[in-house]
């Protein structure tokens, strides 16, 4: 090996060893949060309220009197209790929370669809999508 080749190999080795990545990337896909509120039961149950009812329904409950809230929650609990034994199990509660999340997603998709289907024919053409999404730019 000649001296210039040796110097080149040595300088490349030093460069590789001394270089560090500048940014650590998170490669894990995280599940969306059940609520945008802080999850601290010592302070409040707002996070659980949103997860249990869904954000929109939780806002409605915030406007009710305690008596109305208790009555409506009783109706919801009877829907959650699938086996009608008078108790809500962890599995029934998990299923309800997933149902509430999916309901919100489907409602949001419906809103988005209506916003993009400009001619209301039940289909979204590329022109409709482009105009609804980027129309202010064009």
Automatic annotation (TrEMBL):
It is found in: Endoplasmic reticulum membrane; Golgi apparatus; Melanosome; Sarcoplasmic reticulum lumen. Residues 1-19 form the signal peptide. Pfam families: EF-hand_5. Its main location: endoplasmic reticulum. Coiled coil: none annotated. Residues 68-103 form the EF-hand domain. GO terms for molecular function: calcium ion binding. Keywords: Calcium, Endoplasmic reticulum, Glycoprotein, Golgi apparatus, Membrane, Metal-binding, Repeat, Sarcoplasmic reticulum, Secreted, Signal. InterPro entries: EF-hand-dom_pair, EF_Hand_1_Ca_BS, EF_hand_dom. GO terms for cellular component: endoplasmic reticulum membrane; extracellular region; Golgi apparatus; melanosome; sarcoplasmic reticulum lumen. Belongs to the CREC family. This is CALU protein.
């Amino acid at each position: 090996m000649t001296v210039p080749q040796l110097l080149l190999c040595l300088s490349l080795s030093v460069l590789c060893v001394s270089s560090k990545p500048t940014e650590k990337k998170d490669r894990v896909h995280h599940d969306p949060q059940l609520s945008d509120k802080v999850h601290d039961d010592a302070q409040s149950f707002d996070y659980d309220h949103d997860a249990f009812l869904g954000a929109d329904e939780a806002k409605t409950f915030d406007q009710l009197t305690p008596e109305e809230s208790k009555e409506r929650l009783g109706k919801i609990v009877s829907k959650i209790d699938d086996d009608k034994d008078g108790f809500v199990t962890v599995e029934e509660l998990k299923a309800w929370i997933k149902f509430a999340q999916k309901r919100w997603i489907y409602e949001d998709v419906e809103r988005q669809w209506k916003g993009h289907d400009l001619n209301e024919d039940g289909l979204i053409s590329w022109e409709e999508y482009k105009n609804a999404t980027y129309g202010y730019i064009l």
